[in-house]
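Project standup — Tuesday

K.O.: blocked on the structure for the chain from last sprint. Re-posting the sequence here as requested.
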Amino acid sequence: MTLRNVTLPSGVTVTAPRRKRAVSWTNATPYLLVAPAIVLVLMVQLGPMLVGIIISFFDLTRLYITNWSGAPFVALENYVTALSFASPVGGRFLQSVGITIAFTVIVVTLCYLLGMSAAVVLQRTFRGKGWFRTLFLLPYALPVYASVIVWSFMFQRDNGLINHVLVDTLHLVQDPPFWLLGDNAFWSMVIVAVWNRWPFAFLMLMAGLQSIPEEVYQASSIDGASVWKQVRYITIPMLAPVNFVLILMMSLWTFNDFNHPFVLFGPTPPPAANLISMHIYNNSFINWNFGLGSAMSVLALIFLLAASGVALWLNRRSNREL
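H.V.: unblocked you, prediction finished:
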């Protein structure tokens, strides 16, 4: 209990007790309840990231795999090696980045087009709409590894279903192509990734389309707007927030894709399907050069952060102009 002085009109000073302010836990309770989850997420996310950044400054190879603390400190040498595009190591790293960017652009574009088409079709009421919706979401509900393994069997040259349809049924080609070798490996990976991820775009876009009032389309139809003009001037602008989040998320997921190439081709994919994730894996766990692999991971992280920052800046700028 804290005391305070009170002066009476007669000039006499009386010391009166002052109650101590009680601590209120009402406002702090939500933060205390969320704190354990936040700490756990930070440990899971930031812990390996910080370890990877630290390893990138050391020459951690197979010679020091049993004694990590004994690896020599090389500062930025691993980054210089990865960015020396004239050297074999840097050239392969640059090639994998280019393949990954092309893979990301193609997969995200096809997923968005398929998702938008299916979402627009299912906006209308017709018989069997629920069955089509369930069928479209089936690839997204299946486990990734199980679906990719099935596709790998379908892509087999001699007894695969795809070559059987192309050669024996439709007679489009004479010799069965190799789908998991050469340049075809890239397109095989694109097909599997699009089949597995386009339902997510369909789900997001369908939810966004349902938030657009039907009266807007009816008013535009009265004014003589065609279906294409409705999509161009009503659907796409009103779906701008959904489109931004969807494209950003799918771009990050696709750029970091590891499951599809690893299950399709194993730990050593063909050069045409050598994504950045597989390239980092090979340098780290096949060549046992964890320092170089960590440096490449940090460079990929910096690239994604920069691309995401530019995307956020452009989105904020477009919102201000509106």
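K.O.: great, moving the ticket to review. The chain is about 65% helix and 5% strand. Residues 30 and 139 are 38 Å apart (CA to CA).
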